[in-house]
Structures are given as structure tokens and as C-alpha cells.
Design brief:
heterodimer, A: 90 residues, 12% helix, B: 397 residues, alpha+beta, five-stranded antiparallel β-sheet, 8 helices, 23 strands
């Protein structure tokens, strides 16, 4: 039962081609978790551009840094003030 | 605690390059976990990576024409920086370090050993009066003063000493267990222990019966304790040194075949943790089945810096397997061993003196080598012989 539910949740994050969908999750006050990202387009202390399946995500704030970064997960830490989805992605 | 050790496993690096985002993306594609990535400027970034990923990072950065600078921090500095967040842990750690350096400065335990007839409480009481009590500073202990006090207070004690191990002081006692303490010397003579020709005679007490150059036989009185003073005869303890030329003969044998042991397998160890009467086996190599194995035990007590010793010890038992083998002994080897043994035996059997000359002959029997030697020695032949019961002695005999 639990495996079935987990599979359903996992399917929810997949697109038609079977690859995982990009998901953003705000954790607490100053953390943002981006799952299944497609890489970084640019970054600075106040602005980060992340490439996703649907376009690029622009994160604005102060003292931004990547707390953790791996192939699938990206944890951004800092005073996040704004987040925008810009343009069409892949 | 796990995160603390994880931090120790990381290395801080700075990446300098024109294409920082591409480098970071490429590192992520190579399954390298990047931790705490902070941009310094447009072309420079600071981050932590696990030590195992460092080579991959270096290769990737070089591929993009960048440069990796490793920020090496001293080990202790990085440890303290990692512990900064765990203030309670850091506080306890610092407290323990301070205690380990302060505790051994004072004595908290006093142990008395070697006493059989005297009660430990009495010894401790005497030590207290001389400044050895729980809580005293180690540097204030005067072991010589305590020793003199103990010897003066307890006549049975012939030797005493105070040693400190960390915060534990050990008072070692040696008692005189013989019932009769010899206060006065017993009247005695000095007799010859063996036949010989006297070379030198020095009388300290008593009356010499022979002169230098005289031949003496075993058992003859050389210095008499009886002294004729005219009206009466005084019986005293004779004392003196008599050196004489003696001949000693010795026969020693050694078998032709020698049984020896040689190590057959590698040494195996068994490690046990001892706490009071409890024993916990930590590591034991199995497979010990032969009776031909030697065992050596070594005990290591847990000791902190400064010498503070805990009642916990590791006992390492080493088992060495042997195999018995039989080897033939050559003539030269046998002769050398026999000569060494004979010389050592003669030297040790003399009270004082030296070997002047030696005449040796080696022979071979059925299954052994034999060495017959005659030693010409210059040795002290005097031995004290107390008056037996029935002899009349005293000041007015």
C-alpha cells in the first residue's frame, strides 16, 4: 500500500517523456529546494538563474549561496525576496 | 556527532575561472556533491567538497581552463570551527581537557603496599603527619622525609619509598620479617672454605692464626673470635679478609643433539578489556589448538595526559606457535658453550676474586661432549662460623 502511494507520488513528478519534473519547495524562511534542475545559468550574491524544464527560474534576494548542490538537488540559502519563472525552457 | 565527523572529511576549495556556472553544472553531472557554494566575485567561488571528490573537481576545472586553490586549514583549527556550533560539546570537551591537566597536580588516592605486619591505617596516619594526605600537591610531597619518618616510627620497617602515578601515591614498605633482630654480632670464627695457599690476610676483629704464604685446609680456623686479654678470654665476632690461591675443578657436559623451538606460525593476539573484575573480549584470533604455543601477556592502563590513570586496562595476550626441532651440536659450538658455562659458574661461585689460569680438556662420549677444567684462582676463602650450642662464650668464660 505504501509502495503504491509512493509510486503515485513519484509518477506525479514525471512528464510524458518519463523524465522527472522540476519542483521548487520553499523551506522555512530562507531556504529554497529545487529538485530535478537542468543546471545553473548564472549566479551572484543577489540573483540566481536556474534552468528548468519549463524555462529559467530567477531567484532574487540577499547573500544567496548554494548550501548543497548535486545532479538532482539544489538547496539555495539566503534572504530570498522574489522568485520568477522566465521564458520557455527546453 | 555524525555531521561533525562529516565536516572533518571535507576540504575547502576556491575555484577561479571564466565559466563558473558551467563548471558547477559539469561537477553536478559528474555526481560531485558541492556544499556551501559561495560566490566571491564573478570569476571566483568558494565551496566545500568531500576529499574523495577532489580529484574529479580538479580535472573538471582544468578542462574549463580554471584553477583550483585548496584552502588548507590546520586540523585543530578546523575541528574547533566545526565544534563552534556544538557549544555544549565544546564546553564539556574543554572542561575535560582542563581537568585532565589539573587533576594530576594533586594526590587523591594513597595506596600502601608491601606491609604484612603493620596496619595500613597506621602507615597512612604516619604519612599524614609528614604531609602526605588526599588533596596534597604532588610537588609538596617529600618522599625522603616520609621515608625517614616511617623508619623511625616503625622499627620493623627496613625500607620505605613513595612514588606517584598521576593522582595516586604509592607507599612501598619493606618489613624485616625475621623474628630476632640482630642487635649485637654473634661471636664467631672465620674458617677456610676450601684448601689453598694464603696470599693476603687482613684482620679487622679477632686474632689471625695463619700468615701469608701458609697452606690451609678446608675448615681450619683462619681468624679466631676468642681473644685472650690476660684475666679472661673475650669471644667476639671475627672479621677480616683472607685471599688465597685455590684450585677448582669442574666437569660440564652438553648433549650432542639439542632440542630447540622455532616459530611455526605467525603470532596471534587476543585483546581483552579489564575493568575491576570484569573482562570483555574485544578481539580474538581463533584457531589456537596446539599445546605448543607460548603466551605473553601485556597490560596497558588507560592514562590521560599528565599521568592520571584509570582503573581500566587493555590486556594483549600474544600467542606464539612453536615447533620442536632437534639439531646436532658441532664440536666447536659445544666447546664454546661449555667454556662459557664453566667460566661463569666458577666466577659466580666465588665470593670475591678472579681466575688466574685455566687448564681445560674436551672429550666426546657416546651422546655428549664433556669438558674437564682445572681453575687456578685467587679468591676470598674466609667464611664465618658461629659457635655451636655447647660452646662457652661470653665476656667471662
Amino acid at each position: 500500500m505504501q509502495d503504491k502511494r509512493h509510486r503515485n507520488e513519484s509518477d506525479m513528478f514525471r512528464n510524458k517523456s518519463g523524465s522527472m519534473k522540476t519542483a521548487c519547495e520553499i523551506i522555512g524562511k530562507n531556504r529554497l529546494l529545487v529538485e530535478n534542475h537542468y543546471g545553473i545559468l548564472g549566479y551572484s550574491m543577489c540573483c540566481i538563474h536556474i534552468r528548468t524544464e519549463y524555462g529559467s527560474i530567477q531567484i532574487l534576494g540577499n547573500n544567496l549561496c548554494f548550501d548543497f548542490m548535486s545532479r538532482t538537488r539544489l538547496l539555495i540559502k539566503g534572504d530570498i525576496t522574489d522568485m520568477k519563472l522566465i521564458g520557455r525552457g527546453l | 556527532m555524525i555531521s561533525f565527523f562529516n565536516k572533518l572529511n571535507r576540504v575547502e576549495v576556491q575555484i577561479i575561472g571564466a565559466e563558473i556556472p558551467e563548471i558547477l553544472n559539469s561537477l553536478c553531472d559528474d555526481n560531485v556533491s558541492l556544499i556551501g557554494t559561495k560566490p566571491i566575485d564573478e570569476y571566483e567561488v568558494s565551496l566545500f567538497v568531500y576529499k574523495k571528490d577532489f580529484h574529479v573537481l580538479q580535472k573538471t576545472v582544468n578542462k574549463y581552463g580554471g584553477e583550483v586553490v585548496s584552502v588548507n586549514k590546520p586540523f585543530l583549527k578546523s575541528v574547533f570551527q566545526s565544534m563552534k556550533r556544538h557549544s555544549a560539546f565544546l564546553g564539556v570537551f574543554l572542561l575535560l581537557v582542563i581537568l585532565f591537566y589539573i587533576l594530576p597536580l594533586r594526590i587523591y588516592f594513597i595506596k600502601v603496599q608491601g606491609n604484612q605486619n603493620i596496619d595500613s591505617v597506621q602507615i597512612l596516619s604516619a604519612c599524614r603527619s609528614e604531609g602526605l594526605y588526599p588533596g596534597v600537591k604532588r610537588r609538596d610531597i617529600r618522599s625522603e622525609q616520609i621515608k625517614n619518618s616511617l623508619i623511625a616510627e616503625f622499627p620493623q620497617i627496613i625500607w620505605a619509598g613513595v612514588n606517584t602515578h598521576g593522582s595516586c601515591a604509592v607507599v612501598s614498605i619493606k618489613e624485616n620479617l625475621s623474628d630476632s633482630i640482630q642487635k649485637q654480632p654473634i661471636p664467631c670464627d672465620i674458617v677456610a672454605a676450601s684448601d689453598g695457599k694464603i696470599q693476603r690476610i687482613e684482620v679487622i676483629e679477632g686474632e689471625a692464626k695463619y700468615r701469608a704464604g701458609d697452606d690451609v685446609e678446608e675448615g681450619e680456623i683462619l681468624i679466631s673470635g676468642q681473644m685472650d686479654v690476660g684475666l679472661c678470654t673475650l669471644n667476639k665476632a671475627a672479621a677480616g679478609e683472607i685471599y688465597a690461591e685455590t684450585f677448582r675443578s669442574i666437569s660440564s657436559v652438553i648433549p650432542k643433539t639439542i632440542k630447540s623451538r622455532e616459530v611455526r606460525k605467525q603470532i596471534k593476539h587476543r585483546i581483552t578489556l579489564h575493568y575491576q573484575n570484569n573482562k570483555i573480549k574485544l578481539c580474538f584470533s581463533s584457531g589456537i589448538s596446539d599445546a605448543t604455543c607460548g603466551r605473553i601477556s601485556r597490560e596497558y592502563f588507560l592514562t590521560f595526559p599528565g599521568g592520571f590513570q584509570l582503573p581500566i586496562s587493555f590486556v594483549v595476550d600474544s600467542y606464539t606457535y612453536y615447533v620442536n626441532s632437534t639439531d646436532d651440536c658441532s664440536v666447536l659450538c659445544a666447546e664454546k658453550d661449555l667454556m662459557d658455562f664453566s667460566n661463569r659458574y666458577i666466577s659466580e661461585s666465588m665470593v670475591a676474586g678472579e681466575i688466574k689460569n685455566v687448564n681445560m680438556q674436551t672429550s666426546m662420549d657416546d651422546n655428549m661432549y664433556r669438558l674437564d677444567g682445572v681453575y687456578y684462582c685467587l679468591e676470598m676463602i674466609g667464611r664465618t662460623k658461629a659457635y655451636e650450642i655447647g660452646d662457652v662464650y661470653g665476656e667471662n668464660s
